[in-house]
Write a structure and sequence with these properties.
Cytochrome Bc1 Complex, Chain D, domain 2, disordered C terminus, 13 helices, about 30% helix, globular, 2 domains, single chain, mainly alpha
């Protein structure tokens, strides 16, 4: 099928005319959730939601990157980490959102006044350089989609309902070589993940920045505390520029890495072994960059966009409530007994790496018994502000503006 120079589908009327001339009748309508997508993006979308590609069948990319949860989630697991396709395996880490991931640079060491620091990459440890590299890996992880080999995956794609479309895009013989087919699969998924639905910039925060809405007094207070280097200091890593009309200036992450000393999650099966530790940049899924053990225990700073939609928080999913996560930042050092058994801090790190935990920047620069940088009311204000980072604010306003009968009809239709 031909596409226009901008990569968009040719007009349906032209295709309909060609089919009618050949006795083909009307073409099949384009599904609503594929409207406006290029062919490679359509392929990526169908791969992303195809639950037949796991072993056993039943898990897709969307199982852990659920659109209803801002492309995050853990396949229904409540342990804070993702459930595998086999129905019982649990991974090591909380599933990061796929939203806004396209903005992450490739992993590298960036020179700063304090020396080189790790930045970028995909996954929480940056081990994949690109969206393409990331998209390929979960298919073969035993605790994820569990395919035993590349050919096992590509054979299923070759038999899928969209296989002919795949050949149209990538070549008639794309499935002759499994490695070539895998590259095309990963590239298609990455193309879908670069579409606007993964980066709509449609939150209340974006509406306020564009002059189309206003924060409440509590939300404004939360933003001020979020930005204040003497209070929340959140923007030191979760970078934002409320004065900019360019939403990409407020990704709420700088894609750097930090060691927060998050409490150990006893719900993760691997943590039943007291000698096991997930050290992020130092493994078990990668080696420490340059062999630098000062990076052990550091994980990539996540975007806070849509943080209110996530079912678990932090790299190990220890927290299930956003307010608890914010309170942890504020009181980790002033009241360690609140977070660690016996009050012994940093229990998810070997003692040799306790010195790697960030204890110099606010709000962490406190000692037990001292007043935290944020009190309870200020924590509540920051949580209120974080609620403005959820996408879909405009659609929510439009729904609220509908007459009651129309709103009920829309709900009924959505439930079908």
């Amino acid at each position: 099928m031909r596409i226009d120079p901008d990569g968009r589908w040719i007009a349906a009327a032209m295709l309909a005319g060609a089919l009618a001339a050949c006795g083909g009748g009307e073409p099949e309508p384009v599904p609503a959730d594929e409207a406006g997508l290029t062919r490679v993006e359509v392929l990526g979308k169908r791969l992303f939601f195809d639950a037949s590609l796991s072993v056993p069948p039943g898990q897709s990319c969307a199982s852990c990157h659920d659109p209803a949860l801002a492309f995050s989630g853990n396949n229904g697991a409540t342990a804070g980490v993702a459930l595998g396709a086999d129905g019982h395996s649990l991974g090591l880490r909380n599933t990061p959102t796929a939203m806004y991931a396209r903005f992450a640079p490739a992993f590298g060491m960036e020179d700063t006044d304090e020396g080189p620091i790790p930045v970028g990459g995909q996954f929480l440890d940056g081990r994949a350089a690109s969206l393409e590299a990331q998209a390929a890996q979960p298919f073969f992880a035993p605790d994820e989609m569990n395919n035993p080999a590349v050919a096992a995956l590509t054979t299923k794609v070759a038999a899928a309902s969209y296989a002919d479309l795949f050949r149209d895009e990538w070549g008639a013989r794309v499935f002759d070589d499994p490695d070539t087919a895998l590259k095309a699969i990963a590239a298609s998924i990455a193309a879908f993940e670069r579409t606007e639905r993964f980066a709509p910039f449609s939150s209340k925060y974006d509406h306020v920045a564009a002059g189309r809405a206003q924060f409440t007094a509590l939300e404004r207070q939360g933003l001020d505390l979020f930005l204040d280097p003497e209070k929340g200091n959140c923007a030191a890593c979760h970078v934002a520029d409320p004065t900019s009309r360019n939403p990409a200036d407020s990704l709420f992450t700088d894609f750097t890495y930090d060691n927060l000393g998050v409490p150990r999650n006893a719900r993760i099966p691997a943590n039943a072994d007291p000698a096991f530790f997930d050290l992020g940049l130092c493994g078990p899924k990668r080696a420490a960059p340059g062999g630098d053990e000062a990076l052990c225990g550091a994980f990539k700073v996540p975007t806070l966009r849509n943080v209110g939609k996530r079912v678990a928080l932090m790299h190990n999913g220890f927290f299930t409530q956003l307010r608890d996560a914010v309170a942890f930042y504020a009181t980790r050092d002033t009241d360690p007994a609140r977070w660690y058994p016996g009050g012994v801090p940093f229990d998810d790190l070997p003692p040799a790496y306790h010195a790697n935990v960030n204890r110099s920047e606010a709000p962490y620069d406190r000692k037990p018994g001292e007043s935290p940088r944020l009190d309870d009311a200020e924590i509540d204000a920051i949580v209120a502000f974080l609620g403005t980072l959820t996408d879909g604010y405009g659609a929510s306003l439009a729904a609220q503006a509908q007459p009651p009968a129309r709103r009920q009809a829309a709900k009924t239709t959505a439930a079908r």
